Amino acid sequence: MSYNYIELISLVLLAIGCFFILSGSLGLIKLPDVFSRIHAAGLIDTLGSGFIVLALIIYSGFSLLSLKLLLIPLFLIFTSPVTGHAIALFAHESGYKPRGKNKK
Amino acid sequence: MAKLNKDSLKTLSFITYFIILFVFWFILSGYLKSLLLFFGLVSVLFVFWMSYRAKALEEDSLPLKIILRLPFYWIWLFKEIFKSGITTTALIWNGKYSPQLISVKASQKNRTGIANYANAITLTPGTVTIEVDKKTFLVHALSKKLSEDLQTDDMNKVITDLDK
């Protein structure tokens, strides 16, 4: 009985993570320019992967494996801003202007 | 006296770094046999020697003072990421974004603090640090609300307090 309970929680968290990844992918297509698209990619990196890893930790139970799983978001926390910043800085340096107004 | 104090602080930070490296090795391997633990110790010592040689163990790069506050800071940061993530998701779905560039002042004293602040801004969805110019950041925000959240200076204060 308690097993089903744990399964349900991890299922809900997986669904939330998938929703954030879907929104991020939608944003990658929909948003107007490079700078705005970085935000969408950041959404996938932080919340999408975070919720999915949390769901996997709860599903697999607490062991050494869950510590290993925790290392994934830890590394993403350090690396994802660096990539986002690198893309934004390069776009800025090569003279790309962000689109100001809402196009819709 | 002051010099001695500085030296002992450095030794303490070396020991902490060593412990962190060994715990990291253990989490990744999970072995408990003594021979394999010995091999782990050798590899940890090798990495330690390499980072000492690369001068990566300066005081600035290994701030001992903040290491205890770090978990609380991460919990707070996750809350911020969640809040602005929901805002960004709503913006993507309803299409009411209005991207804008703002400049943000940073009040951290050392380089680690400034890098930490810039990373935190980029990490929260909806805001990206484009350029760091000494103490001012050029930040691209996805909407007016997100940029106003940043200009209330809450995040700046929390990260400055981290290094007290």
What does this structure look like?
- The complex is a heterodimer of chains A (104) and B (164).
- Chain A has 104 residues and is mostly helical.
- Chain A contains 3 helices and no strands.
- Chain B has 2 domains: 2-61, no CATH class; 70-161, 2-Layer Sandwich (Alpha-Beta Plaits), CATH 3.30.70.
- Chain B has helices spanning 2-29, 34-53, 70-94, 111-123, 144-151, 154-161; strands at residues 100-105, 127-133, 136-141.
- In chain B, strands 1-3-2 form a 3-stranded antiparallel beta sheet.
- In chain B, helix 1 crosses helix 2 and helix 4 crosses helix 6.
- Classes of the chains: A mainly alpha (104), B mainly alpha (164).
- Chain A binds chain B through residues 19-20, 23-24, 26-27, 30-33, 35-36, 38-40, 42-43, 46-47, 50, 64, 67-68, 71, 77-78, 80-82, 84-85, 88-89, 92, 98-102, 104, and chain B through 27-28, 30, 74, 78, 81-82, 85, 88-89, 92-93, 95-101, 118-120, 122-131, 138, 140, 142.
Secondary-structure blueprint:
The complex is a heterodimer of chains A (104) and B (164).
Chain A: H1 2-30, H2 34-60, H3 64-93
Helix pairs in contact in A: 1-2, 2-3
Chain B: H1 2-29, H2 34-53, H3 70-94, E1 100-105, H4 111-123, E2 127-133, E3 136-141, H5 144-151, H6 154-161
Antiparallel strand pairs in B: 1-3, 2-3
Helix pairs in contact in B: 1-2, 4-6
